[in-house]
Amino acid sequence: MNSATRILVVEDEFVTGLEIRARLEDLGYEVLDILDTGEEAVRKAGELRPDIMIMDITLRGEMTGIEAADTIRRDYNIPAIYLTAHSDEATVQKAVHSEPFGYLIKPLDERALHTTIRMALYKHAMDKALIEGEKRYRTIAELSEDLLFILNRDTSIAFLNSRALAFFHLPSENSPYPSLKEILPSDLYEKIAVQIQTVFEYGSSLHATHHFTYDGEDFWFDCSIVPIITADGVIQVIGQFHDVSALVRIEKEIEKKGLVQIEHNMEQFQILNDRIRNPLAIIMSLASLEDTKENIEIIEQVKRIDALVTQLDHGWVQSDAVRAFLLKHYGHGKPID
Questions:
Q1: C-alpha pair distances (Å), 68 with each of 9, 40, 73, 117, 122
Q2: 101-105, 108-112, 322-326: least confidently modelled range
Q3: Which of 43, 158, 246, 278 lies at a C-alpha separation of 20 to 30 Å from 150?
Q4: What is the pLDDT confidence band of residue 6, given thresholds at 50, 70 and 90?
Q5: Is 70 exceeded by the pLDDT of residue 256?
Q6: Residue 337 — very low, low, confident or very high, per pLDDT cuts 50/70/90?
Q7: pLDDT recorded at residue 53
Q8: Hey, CA dihedral for 306, 308, 312, 315, is it positive or negative?
Q9: Mapped to the 3 state alphabet, what secondary structure does 64-102 carry?
Q10: What is the reported pLDDT for 32?
Q11: 330 has a pLDDT exceeding 60
Q12: Cβ distance 313 to 273 under 8 Å?
């Protein structure tokens, strides 16, 4: 593994540089060159593209080792291990703030040198994999038709996908994002804020369907709030808003049509009642004029029909109650006189 690892050494003391080269080659590494200025280190890093650099903090020229390492990492994504003869707190803090992949104190210990290089290469590989993974997941998020967001523990927004940016009329630039309270309609925010707090507190997912008004239009979203822990142990939550407004509107339209049909049927019952009872009264009157066998049979049949109509009357009274219920709870049906 070591023979494939190419190292660029940046050290302003010539003898120390030769010593580092000898130790690295003894360990099986390939040393590409020994440089003594930060400016030259930046140029050579771009040309040679080493796997890793060993960078002295104090160098000749205008650029320090820390500045050179930052530039090289930003431009070429090459990790650096800092090397210094100073272990004072100020030097260490300055180096730590630049987030090096390792830190060595002169004079070098061969075992520490080997271990630090291996750990730095491993950390760099993991960081690269995480970056690639994040890019992959962001690409998936951008392809989603759902509104997606990631919140930090203080509920500040870490990420919004394009669908969310477009829905809430936000610019496509990533950062800084407005607060969630500024983005969401107030009636939706009050519900979601409680869910988010609960997920952060208990670490379990929550799912709910929320109705809200935005831009003068009614929406229904299936909302999922899920906790995540990042590679560095930071707790965040992912929010997924799935728009089900079209489905809800269809269901409501179907429901409305059903209620309208019930209303129509009740009206037909009343019309049928009126149209049957009036002719029955006339038939009864005519049949009662003569006490014949035929008239007696007619009267008996009229009574049977009248009994059926009476049942319709009872049904109509019940339908009035149904009508009142529909009017009160669904807004459908005509007021009852």
A1: 12, 9, 9, 19, 22
A2: 322-326
A3: 246
A4: very high
A5: no
A6: very low
A7: 93
A8: positive
A9: CHHHHHHHHHHHHCCCEEEEECCCCHHHHHHHHHCCCCC
A10: 94
A11: no
A12: yes
Number of Cβ within 10 Å of residue 10's Cβ equals 29
pLDDT at 195 over 70: yes
What residues have CB less than 8 Å from 57, skipping those under 6 apart?
64, 65, 66, 82, 83, 84, 86, 91, 94, 95
Higher-confidence residue: 124 or 53?
Answer: 53
Check: CB of residue 323 under 8 Å from CB of residue 266: yes
Among residues 162, 234, 248, 237, the alpha carbon closest in space to that of 192 is found at 237
Q: Across the chain, what does the average pLDDT equal?
A: 79
**154-171: buried (b, 16+ CB within 10 Å) or exposed (e) per residue?**
eeebbbbbebbbebbeee
What is the chain's percent helix, strand, coil content, to nearest 5? 55, 20, 25
Separation of alpha carbons 270 and 305, rounded Å: 16
**Residues 6+ away with beta carbon under 8 Å from 82:** 55, 56, 57, 65, 66, 69, 95, 100, 102, 103, 104
Question: Does the structure show a pLDDT above 90 at 39?
Answer: yes
Per domain, the residue ranges of the chain are 2-136, 145-243, 250-330
Residue 173: per-residue pLDDT: 63
Strands, E assignment, 161-287: 206-214, 217-229, 235-243
| CATH of span 2-136 | 3.40.50.2300
Phi, psi of 231 (to 5 degrees): -60, -30
Q: Any idea what DSSP says for residue 5? A: -
Q: Which long-range contacts (CB under 8 A, 24 or more apart) does 309-313 make?
A: 309/273, 309/276, 309/277, 309/280, 312/269, 312/272, 312/273, 313/273
CA dist 283 and 295 (Å) reads 10
Question: For residue 2, is pLDDT > 50?
Answer: no
Place of tokens 């104090």: 58
DSSP state of 37: B
The CA-atom distances, in angstroms, between 252 and each of 214, 243, 245, 259 are 19, 16, 10, 10
Q: Which CATH fold topology does 145-243 show?
A: Beta-Lactamase (3.30.450)
